[in-house]
Amino acid sequence: MQTTFPKLLLQHAAERPDAAAMREKEYGIWQTLSWSALAAMVEALACGLHQAGLRRNEHMVVVGANRPRLYATMLAAQSLGAVPIPLYQDAAAAECVFPINNADVRFAFAEDQEQVDKLLEIRERCPQLEHIYFDDPRGLRKYDAIGLASIDELLAAGKAFAALHDGFARAEIAQGQPGDEAAMFFTSGTTGNPKGVVHTHNSLLNRAQAGARFDGLTHAEEVLAYMPPAWIGQNIFSYAQWLACGYVVNCPESAATVNIDLKEIGPTYYFAPPRVFEGLLTSVMIRMEDASAIKRKIFHACMAVAQRVGPARMNGQPVGLVDRLLYRLGDWIVYGPLRNNLGMSRVRVAYTAGEAIGPDLFTFYRSIGVNLKQLYGSTETAVFVCLQPDSEARADTVGVPIEGVEIKVADNGEILVRSPGLLKAYYKDPEATAEVLSADGWYRTSDAGFLDAQGHLKIIDRVKDVGRIAGGANDGAMFAPKYVENKLKFFPFIKEVVAYGDGRDRVCVMVNIDVEAVGNWAERRNLPYAGYTDLAQKPEVYQLIQDCVEKVNADLSRDQLLAGSQVSRFLVLHKELDADDGELTRTNKVRRGFIAEKYQPLVEALYAGKTAQYIETAVKFEDGRSGQVSATLKISDAKTFVPVKAAA
């Protein structure tokens, strides 16, 4: 089925006019928007934008959280043949300059005062930015900037235009073709400026429909949209698949109410990166540590049954009568209430992507009856490349190639993909496009991996990051930093890790602790601390992290390929890595090269054998002020293990 997003909107409005399309929580009350009401809003916005001067093939920036009017504005732009560009709402003002200028943006949608302030701040550097429309008027009553207006004003102007030009918006929608450009997503830009990934209606909808068929999705699904719309993962699940399937997208009131809203909605289809699942589990384990001794004993006993029985049960494998009865009892006492507390009582399909998820974390959710699976894809592939079938969900793979996808592995181990969901191009960057897209349609993913005997794809690391140990006992051994980092992040006490070792004689890491998990651990041991920096440098915390590192080393020693990647030395950073400080991308990926430069004295101290190193670091506070954080960081050695030889 080849179509466009606005045509699908009109189809749903015609077939199910009164059915819920979206819900938004405002002042604690869920407000429902039907498909017919949404279509009417989109028509008015499209007419208003046309009257203001937005034309076919132009770009329009939208910046804000998931809101019905943000989605309607994107649909209105697409109705006119224009191309919406979602930007991260937590991005600093300066980060918006390149996308706006690169795409020659004249029109912008801003959710609220915070986003309006950012756009007005950079307007001198983006002189072509003529029109800024805002949704939430709070705090903006006395603003009088040229070209600044509310969405309500735009809607009123659009309705007046539509009354004089009957059928205008539908005629514009009818002109749209599946091969037209539909949206542009800027990559996170781990090195240099971000690149604008151009997708057509067909590339996005083809993959959305293929994913829907794979999991049997229907219009009856309920989805909670709480991740940034600028992340293509959220955009595919709550925009492309929403219009492909016609299910209901629910917008939480705020980031602070997501967990409450999750329980109230009870989604049937759920998507989140591993860090969200990690956070949910950490909060559960913290509460259990604070529970009475008998409750903890019951919980751990039931979880032992779940871990033994649950995954096999989820995969459709036979389970003995006694285990079935024990699991049913555990479901009544622990697993059912736990799923309800997590807001996952009705989840039929849950996906995680963006980073590798730990085996223990993955097994935990499947063991309590949550059908958590992994997928593989990227911005350039419209997300859906590999998905895990319900009965073949494994922690060490990212699934099988789905309908329409071809995969092959290059001689250097790089995964190549051919799919109807591939990007049209990088905007204004033919050289970068030629680097990733071959003449015969293969996309170079930059990921290293292989297909196993069952046809499942396994990812090792980024091709450019896979290196070799040089010198020492492990000379020539493979080093995969992301693999090592992810294994350490499987522990609830560790939030982030940066590993180094390529071209060096050993592997060293810098660790961010999870302040909530470690803080709770410290409080239960009556260990006082005066903030993150103080807690991070406690000897007891270093011993806690050392135990985690050495458990990972013991595990790595049994891996023939990566036994040489065991961690020799580590330190705990004095501050959390932050996207505002340039250390993470907006999708929370580590900028390893940038961190190596910023913390060069620490990297040198790790490899020089020092036991401590003083560091001063510039930071940006939430209110925009800059400051310095300084500390003398301890550096510790970790026990490594002799590699375990495979049996003959």
Task: Give the total of domains.
Answer: 4
| Radius of gyration over C-alpha positions, nearest whole angstrom | 26 Å
Which CATH-level-2 architecture of the largest domain? Answer: 3-Layer(aba) Sandwich
Which word captures the global form? globular
CATH class identity of the largest domain: Alpha Beta
H/I helix tally? 21
Runs in which pLDDT lies below 50 for 5 or more consecutive residues are: none
- CATH topology heading of the largest domain: Rossmann fold
Oligomer designation: single chain
- In percent terms, what proportion of residues is strand? 15-25%
Report on this model:
- By secondary structure, the chain is of the alpha/beta class.
- The protein folds into four domains: 267 residues, 3-Layer(aba) Sandwich (Rossmann fold); 77 residues, no CATH class; 92 residues, Luciferase, domain 3, CATH 2.30.38.10; 172 residues, ANL, C-terminal domain (GMP Synthetase, Chain A, domain 3), CATH 3.30.300.30.
- It is 38% helix and 21% strand.
- It has a five-stranded parallel β-sheet, sandwiched between helices.
- Helix 3 links the parallel strand 3 and strand 4.
- The longest helix is centred in the middle third of the chain and has 22 residues.
- It is globular, with a radius of gyration of 26 Å.
- The mean pLDDT is 92.
